Amino acid sequence: MTSEQGLWRNRTMRIDAHQHFWMYSPAEYGWINDEMADLKRDFLPKDLKPLLVENGFQGSIAVQARQDLDETRWLLELADQNEFVKGVVGWVDLCSPDLPAELERFALSPKFVGVRHVLQDEPDDEFMLRPEFRRGIARLAEHGLTYDLLLYPRHLRVAVKLVRKFPEQRFVLDHIAKPGIAHGLMEPWELDIRELAMFDNVFCKLSGMVTEARWKQWKPQDFHPYLDVVFEAFGRSRLMIGSDWPVCTLSGSYEETVGIVTDYLKQSIPEETDDILGANCMRCYGAQ
Q: What is the pTM of this model?
């Protein structure tokens, strides 16, 4: 362990705010294409825990990777069996008439902390504004649940419209909305993300950046313009570190991926970085 890792270990609990588990099958994980062949295997808590320990993390938030109620149940079982999994952002059909009953059942688990739908894959860019979807969002606050926004930059303006309708609902923007880092694209991403950040009920995950860069050819400096924007827009109280493991391994190791953020944070005083490395995540998700 390096002296720097020891320094981080001595501070408040560090939480990886975004990771996935799965037992791979081609039918259930069709989004894993041949370009992502390294992901075509199982990724389980026993695989993640050593990486967390080696990098000074004490816990993580497991996030859905397919849109299926069975996966949400399975993730909650894993969380019950593994203390380091502090919460689960699962999937439920927000448009379903059965939603109230499904939320009641999942909310029995204290580790059910949020919901996510793969909005980025919907053919309709304004899917999140459909009345039935908005009715589903309106039910989340009853159970203290967050909603994770999985978006591309073109969806940010639509997300602003959604968030404006729900000032009491906590939202989390995943992967800083996946800007075109590989090509150094800043606009209109920067303008739109600044507008979304004006709503103080929106948090942002510093995650998923390595797979938007040139896979395994990026430099840490490639991310600095994007980090500069989100730090200025969201402030330190609404940002949280996440690895997006195991997807991140397509472009960098776990250590390299989280190092992008921790190295960037060296310019900040420790009292401020503690929030980004764990406290904001626990506060946003209400995780224990």
A: 0.93
